[in-house]
């Protein structure tokens, strides 16, 4: 059973999270476009160190690009910026603004994603209006220093206890994504498996195929 949310499970199939750590002289917008060309179905702009003005300009640019590709665009943590530019929504962690409060700021029609590591966190996020959950880290990851590992059993349990879409995140690659088969997720979120690759477009297309196989599509 699923309930009506502001995002569809198929939009969450291959969710790309930006990280300028992998730029190596390229621009973030060129990397995001390569991911979109390769078939990324959802983009989250994640910036930890940009000043407000640069973040605002970058968010507008990437939002425009995502609209051209008809792919949902959300911003990590920064609820005010998401509201200011009219982004499709935000993704918040357990230490960020609570989903209930985010909904009050953004309104009923925006996408709210919440990170969860336990069934209790997942159920509370759903109760408070989350549209989808990002659960992880399902594998060891170098992208987030504070990532807590979540077992396959916990991932599956979360999927069984909520009625909103669940995506797995953390250390996922083209080679280990198959291990998430029959967990109940509708897709995966990745950083380095896309943006850390030499050919981002090809890596995205390949990962999308592997994810579809894992889901039995």
UniProtKB/TrEMBL annotation:
Biochemical pathway: Cofactor biosynthesis; thiamine diphosphate biosynthesis; thiamine phosphate from 4-amino-2-methyl-5-diphosphomethylpyrimidine and 4-methyl-5-(2-phosphoethyl)-thiazole: step 1/1
Signal peptide residue numbers: none
Sequence positions that bind 2-[(2R,5Z)-2-carboxy-4-methylthiazol-5(2H)-ylidene]ethyl phosphate: 141-143, 171, 191-192
EC number: 2.5.1.3
Cofactor: how and how many bound: Binds 1 Mg(2+) ion per subunit.
Family: Belongs to the thiamine-phosphate synthase family.
Protein name from the UniProt record: Thiamine-phosphate synthase
